[in-house]
Amino acid sequence: MRVLVVGGGVAGLSCVHDLLKGSAGHEATLLEASGRLGGKLLGGSIDGVAADAGPDSFLSTRPWALELIRELGLFGEVLCTERQKRDVFVLSRGKLRKYPEGLMMLIPSRVWPFLTSDLLPLTAKLRIGLEFFIPRLREERDESLAEFGLRRFGEAALRTVIEPVFAGIYAGDVESLSLASAFPLFRELEREYGSVLRGVYARRRRGEGGDPGQGLTMFVTLKGGVARLADALAERARPCVRLKTRVASIRREKGIFRVSLEGGETIRADAVVLAAPTDAAAAILREDAPELACMLEGFQFSSTAVVNLLYDSASMARPLEGFGFLVERGEGVSLTAATFTSNKFPGRVPEGKTLIRCYFGGAGREGPLALDDDGLLRAARSDLRRILGLEAAPLGSLVHRWPKANALYNVGHGARVAALDAKLSAVPGLLLAGGCYRGIGIPECIRSGREAARRILESRAAPTGGIV
Predict the structure, then answer these.
(1) Helix (H) or strand (E) run with residue 341 in it
(2) H helices within 158-289, ranges in order?
(3) To 10 degrees, the CA torsion angle through 127, 132, 135, 140?
(4) Dihedral sign of CA atoms 125, 127, 129, 131 in order
(5) Whole-angstrom distance, CA of residue 194 vs CA of residue 189
(6) Which of 95, 98, 104, 114 has the smallest set of CB atoms within 10 Å of its CB?
(7) Are 345 and 221 in contact (CB under 8 A)?
(8) What does each C-alpha distance from 286 to 265, 283, 297, 433 come to in angstroms?
(9) What distances in angstroms separate CA 436 from CA 124, 218, 296, 336, one per listed residue?
């Protein structure tokens, strides 16, 4: 078959990688509208030090990224997080407060450090403990993360723990994020055990959900940053890639896709994988499949920005503690979080250098993004001065923006995906892949792209259309 993959992010690259590796006479072409491959897996350099402009790590507990990394011969470049000094803080009530061990996932690993911490008032800590006795939700509905957090853990835990940690993952708003789509494990634990705390402790006793294996920590990265993965995939895909090639429309006639490019060229294909964001996919399908386009336009996104700052460690008054900090809403700063990359991943940054990643934006917190790049840099330095007392001037910086690039799995997302999937089943050969649908992380995007390739390779004709 002639297979056309639209979108050169990690999902599209993973799809092409498998099509080329397992080709049974198939002809694959990858079209990317921009001038580079890798999508959000984007790296840069500050004074010779590699910096991630997009995600800086991924979960080792999701197998798909590590499987691909091993195939690419990059497993020796995997870096784990620091295993000892791994504290994370939250700016709450005007000061940095440490999350007790395990609490970032809502489950205190040890009771006494949790009870004696200054993170939450005693009444809030007791309210978390009462989660054991809160009745499970009987009705079947798509509950927001805020509804769930208030119902099971109380207001203080929602604002100081759940919102900074879990809304930060999606750059979303807890009042809108869907529990079922974004954090299905919590709903599963409540259903099975009647309590999230009871469920986690029960699974822990059985040895589930612990060490991901292979001696790795939960989060890992690569020595040169996660963009190293995209570079390796891009190198293998290069012979079948066309950059700066934008698709104008797709029409299916007599079992064949006629793909019109901006500029007038037409490409014929037996199967098409749209591994592009939903707004781009909607624009491509609007002419021939307006109903599908309309459904795709219903997906929602938020905007963010990342500011990397590199310091000479000797210029800093005191070393940084832990992995970084999150910011509770209403604290009067522009930042939403900061990661101390040089602390988090030993070996990632040269000795004597300190790399800090500052995050801005997210749903309901996009105001600072109106600043220009110099303004964002000033805001980052001002907030670090206020929060950390960091007066030193950085050796250099790297600012990158991600406008409407963060998929929001808001209430109704699951139903929207299911309806779109059902509609696509009537369009043989058309597959939608990527992080907009069933998982935003790097491993999930890789799984999606490889699943699209698997369906094509195992099909003697055009595969059934759908979301992968």
Answers:
(1) helix 341-344
(2) 168-170, 179-182, 184-193, 196-205, 227-237, 278-285
(3) 100
(4) negative
(5) 7
(6) 95
(7) yes
(8) 18, 5, 10, 18
(9) 35, 23, 10, 22
- SS3 category, 446: helix
* CA distance readout (Å), 17 to 62, 225, 297: 19, 20, 29
C-alpha gyration radius of the chain:
23
Count the neighbouring beta carbons within 10 Å of the beta carbon of residue 458: 10
Q: How many CB atoms lie within 10 A of CB 175?
A: 15
Phi, psi for residue 330 in degrees, rounded to 5: 85, 10
Phi-psi domain of 63 (left: phi exceeds 0; alpha: psi -120 through 50; beta: other)? alpha
3-state secondary structure of 222: strand
Predicted pLDDT of residue 113: 85
Residue 422 CA, chain-centre distance (Å), reads 26
The token duo for 374 is 């110099």
Strand spans (E) along 112-191: none
Q: Residue 84 and residue 69: Cα distance in Å, rounded?
A: 26
The answer to whether 174 and 149 have CB atoms below 8 angstroms apart is yes
Sheet with 219-222, side-by-side order of all strands: 58-59, 219-222, 78-80
DSSP H or E segment with residue 417: helix 413-424
- DSSP state letters, 30-97: EE-SSSSS-TT--EEEETTEEEESS---EESSSHHHHHHHHHTT-GGGEEEPPSSS--EEEEETTEEE
- Which tokens sit at 218? 């939960």
Cα–Cα dist 86/68, whole Å? 27
Provide the whole-model pTM. Answer: 0.95
Confidence (pLDDT) at 354: 98
Amino acid at 320: L
Tokens for 142, please give them: 């798509």
pLDDT, one tens digit per residue, over 236-279 is 999 999 999 999 999 999 999 999 999 999 999 999 999 999 99
How confident is the model over 63-109, as pLDDT tens digits? 999 999 999 999 999 999 999 888 999 999 999 999 998 787 777 77
Rounded to an integer, what distance in angstroms lies between the CA atom of residue 57 and that of residue 7? Answer: 22
* Phi–psi pair at 220, nearest 5 degrees: -135, 165
What span, in angstroms and rounded, lies between the C-alpha atoms of 384 and 356?
10
